[in-house]
Amino acid sequence: MKGIFSIAAVLVPGLLFAQQATSGGSFLVSLLPLILIFVIFYLLLILPQSKYEKKRKEMLASLRKGDRVVTTGGIIGVIQKIEDEIVTLKVAENVNIKIEKQAVRAILEKGGEE
């Protein structure tokens, strides 16, 4: 939504202070292309991004001990412990690392405890 408002902040003053065309066209008809651009922009960019963010939040909320995950850095590990925003991953025998929960990119397989 911030993107729409920033684009509108740039375009609206130009529309308000633009000289009216000599043809007797309606103001609404002249705004129709701009409205169409906003609708296309929303459908192609904002809506898919919000759906992606919603799915990502659900995925992060569903993390459980025993899940096999991959991080944004490409590290694959099994969740050993989940604290507020910190996840402890077992990446090898006797090797545990702590990462932020936001760094989990995907769940490779659900595991262990639910």
TrEMBL record:
A Gene Ontology biological process term: protein transport
Signal sequence annotation: none
Keyword flag Protein transport: yes
Annotated membrane topology: Single-pass membrane protein
GO CC terms in record: plasma membrane
Keywords from the named record: Cell membrane, Membrane, Protein transport, Translocation, Transmembrane, Transmembrane helix, Transport
Transmembrane annotation, as ranges: 28-47
InterPro entries, A to Z: Preprotein_translocase_YajC (IPR003849)
Main location as per UniProt: membrane
Superkingdom of this protein's organism: Bacteria
Cellular location(s): Cell membrane
Family that this chain belongs to: Belongs to the YajC family.
Protein name: Preprotein translocase subunit YajC
